[in-house]
Amino acid sequence: MRCTLGVDIGTSSSKGVLVAEDGTIIASATRAHDVARPHAGWVEMDGRIWWDEFVQIARELLDGHQDAEVVAVGVSGMGPCVLLADENDEPVRPAILYGVDSRSTTQITRLTDELGQDEITRIGGSVLTSQAGGAKIVWVADEDPDSYARARRLFMPASWLARRLTGAYVLDHQSASQTSPFYDIENECWYEPWWQQYAATIEQPALAWAGDIAGTVTAAASELTGIPLGTPVIVGTIDAWTEAVSVGAHGVGDLMLMYGTTMFLIATGEDTLRTPSMWTTAGAFAGTRNLAGGLAASGALTAWLKDLTDADYPQLLAEAAESGPGARGLVMLPYFAGERTPIQDPDARGVIAGLTLRHGRGDLYRAALEATALGVRHNVETMRAAGADIRRIVAVGGGTQGRLWLQIVSDATGLVQEVPETTIGASYGAAFLAASAIAADDVKPQIEHWNPVADTITPDPSAKAAYDALFDRYLRLYDGTRGVVHELAAEQRTH
Q1: For residues 196-213, average pLDDT
Q2: What is the C-alpha separation between 266 and 38, in angstroms, rounded?
Q3: How far is CA 269 from CA 110, 183, 250, 283, in A?
């Protein structure tokens, strides 16, 4: 049975799928892991975990399905991350994760002062934020010089897997465009003056597109994983973009909403749109550009409440549904891990306003779901103000399993959401890219055949007025509490 293997390295787990030629999922496997938070604002992980879990997942899937003939491998992973390795491909320090890690604030300020915000935006598309991979590289040079002195190569999860599988040292354009300020978005290449100024001792990875073939599985990788020698492996890209592929939400006018540990949004177009509030990136495919955004905490926030209240998700969802729109007079800011877009404030913190002794855990859970929905609305309105033409919304990710959350997002934003049949996410998209990479042009798989729309979530008109009022309070609550919250964030950094 011919199939493709797709593996994605996520924030809280690695997931793999074996997928038949018609898109049917034959089997899946997962390995849970934790991130490390050694200091306030730091989020990192031992990059060696990524390969170890890939090997475990590949072995589990192939050993359990001896009739599976893997004809191509897809890879994907969270990002933009910064994993620096030496000349022997040994990590010199833990990988620094994407925008949830806010340690590089000083470097962002320095780079912006030295290079100029307008010039940074002209070359790379975006202002520097906690999402900027280049600023994280400079942080290592400044704050961990011993490790930086040994560093010779730059990896992200997908490129790390491709390296270990094939020996290729390659990074996709989409990921590279988030290594700000080292990528020239209009010319789709590394920007040599700034790379040489700030990262000259790091070898530049070759650049390719996500669905290109990086190389083939080596003898050493085949022995470890069980994948046949010579099997093609794609370059891969960042998980949110691979998730967009998995549901066909990467065409011009599409917006993908990814419901996961964090919430991510990707609007696709042909033009390079620039706004200081969002991230401008290259697309997953040649000829496309993205305006992207992300909440720093969404699923992580609901998981925190679940653990805090010692209740299970069905209980909390039932109680949240009973609470109703507005959570009986509560409004929450979901900035429990700082916030990414559109406020770009790593020192933002969570706020719950309106609490009384009458409120219960269902009200709090409802307020958390509404907070993420209002964060989505804030991002969508900012994207549209920047010129994004959003015609179609597709929801993906683990959070789509709970219809209440989807309904609240549609009600709060006024958006119709399409939910595909398969929402397993980036690993499925990676398997699709792998299948496409080896297929002839006249027989390439079509994602609408692999993964048709299964449900459509329509806004409830009767909830519009309540959520319009709540959104206004949401915006004013951040403005009104920002000063105190920033003082508390500064104090937290001392503990």
Answers
A1: 98
A2: 30
A3: 32, 19, 9, 9
3-state secondary structure the chain: CEEEEEEEECCCEEEEEEEECCCCEEEEEEEECCCECCCCCCCEECCHHHHHHHHHHHHHHHHHCCCCEEEEEEEEECCCCEEEECCCCCECCCEECCCCCCCCHHHHHHHHHHHCHHHHHHHHCCCCCCCCHHHHHHHHHHHCHHHHHHCCEEECHHHHHHHHHHCCCEEEHHHHCCCCCCEECCCCEECHHHHHHHCCCCECCEEECCCCEEEECCHHHHHHHCCCCCCEEECCEEHHHHHHHHCCCCCCCEEEEEECCCEEEEEEECCCCCCCCCEEEECCCCCCEEEEEEECCCHHHHHHHHHHHCCCHHHHHHHHHHHCCCCCCCEEECCECEECCCCCECCCCCEEECCCCCCCHHHHHHHHHHHHHHHHHHHHHHHHHCCCCCCEEEEECHHHHCHHHHHHHHHHHCCCEEEECCCCCHHHHHHHHHHHHHCCHHHCCCHHHHCCEEEEECCCHHHHHHHHHHHHHHHHHHHHHHHHHHHHHHHHCCC
Q: What average pLDDT does the segment 442-463 reach?
A: 94
Tokens of 319: 């109680």
| pLDDT recorded at residue 287 | 87
User: Any residues with CB less than 8 A from the CB of 69 and at least 6 apart, and which?
Assistant: 1, 2, 3, 228
Work out the average pLDDT over 195-215: 98
Positions of CATH 3.30.420.40 in the chain: 2-240, 249-422+460-495
User: Given a cut of 90, is residue 250 above it in pLDDT?
Assistant: no
pLDDT tens column, 303-320: 999 999 999 999 999 999
pLDDT of the residue at 249: 92
What integer pLDDT is reported at residue 183 of this predicted model? 98
Pick from 80-84, 337-341, 433-437: least confident: 337-341
In this prediction, residue 402 carries a pLDDT of 81
Domain spanning 2-240 has what CATH number? 3.30.420.40
Strands 183-184 and 213-216 turn out to be unpaired
pLDDT of 103 > 90? The answer is: yes
Distance, C-alpha 211 to centroid of its chain: 18
Fold of 249-422+460-495: Nucleotidyltransferase; domain 5 (3.30.420)
Q: What percent of the chain has pLDDT over 90?
A: 89
pLDDT exceeds 90 at position 40 = no
pLDDT for the residue numbered 95: 98
